[in-house]
Amino acid sequence: MSRGALITFEGGEGAGKSTQIETLKTLLESWGHEVMVVREPGGTALGEQIRTILLSHEYEKMSPQAELLLYEAARAQIVSEVIEPALEEGIIVLCDRFYDSTSAYQGYGRALGTSLIDELNRFASGGLTPDATLIIDLPVEIGLDRAGRKGSLDRLETAGQDFHEAVRAGFLHIAAQDPDRVHLIDGTRPLDEVAADVERIVTEALARV
Ligand code: T5A
């Protein structure tokens, strides 16, 4: 059996990742692929507990260092327990956030820098690299407005405008640094136009796997 593929979706708050992932899943399944959707942080019993802690307003005093390590702990668990076994079985894994979120949010947003985070990302993911990464980019205020319409904002979403501008700049930098893997998509357009870009990029990526 041939190995599956890992496609990761990234971007700021309310970028439209979950919406596009569901559309893509339906499309890929209609083409006969076996598809799994997972999210970070989460996707395992341990990861979901960590997610609750990370997003809760109960822990407003969480240090950036503790935050970083919790995201990496959740990642180590989902890679070993869920993602690697799925890839071994030939499944296409669509991951709602992966290690580029740590680089953007903790590296740029929390200003923890990139070299330690690159190392921790490699450690937690066991060296696994996505076959393609799609960053859906849009202005911070539009994303937060969309996120707010879905319900009350969590601890990260309420981290402030400057934080989210730094996160966005981080994602743009990541896309510029690694153009073979990372694809930037303009998320301000209508859903179907964004979906057409997603389909084209993923089709090309799967042809290379
Ligand atoms: N985080 C995560 C870190 O800090 N470090 C890390 O290492 C990791 C992995 C996770 C939080 O943790 C942070 C990032 C996050 O702050 P989360 O709830 O998973 O929390 O956060 P998000 O992934 O941002 O989830 P959202 O649901 O807010 O964003 P999505 O999935 O990008 O957006 P989606 O698809 O739910 O869409 C939001 C709304 O916009 C509409 C949708 O219908 C929906 O109502 N929409 C559009 N409207 C108009 N035009 C379009 N093109 C639209 N696309 C979507």
Structural class: alpha/beta
Helical residues, percent: 55-70%
Give the rounded overall mean pLDDT.
Answer: 97
Topology pattern, helix = H, strand = E: EHEHHEHHEHHEH
Number of helices: 8
- Strands ordered across the widest β-sheet: 2-3-1-4-5
> What is the CA-CA span between the terminal residues?
13 Å
Beta-strand portion reads: 5-15%
Low-confidence stretches: none
SS elements, strand count: 5
User: Mind summarizing the main beta sheet?
Assistant: 5 strands, parallel
Quaternary state of the chains? single chain
If you compute it from the alpha carbons, what radius of gyration comes out, rounded to the nearest whole angstrom?
16 Å
Small molecules (ligands, ions, cofactors) in the structure: P1-(5'-adenosyl)P5-(5'-thymidyl)pentaphosphate
Shape: globular
Overview of this protein structure:
It is a single chain. The chain has a 5-stranded parallel beta sheet, with helices on both faces. The mean pLDDT is 97. It has 8 helices and 5 strands; from the N terminus they run βαβααβααβααβα. The radius of gyration is 16 Å and the shape is globular. By secondary structure, it is of the alpha/beta class. The structure holds P1-(5'-adenosyl)P5-(5'-thymidyl)pentaphosphate. P1-(5'-adenosyl)P5-(5'-thymidyl)pentaphosphate binds at residues 11, 13-19, 39-41, 55, 71, 96-97, 101-102, 105-106, 146-147, 149-150, 156-157, 187, 190-191, 194.
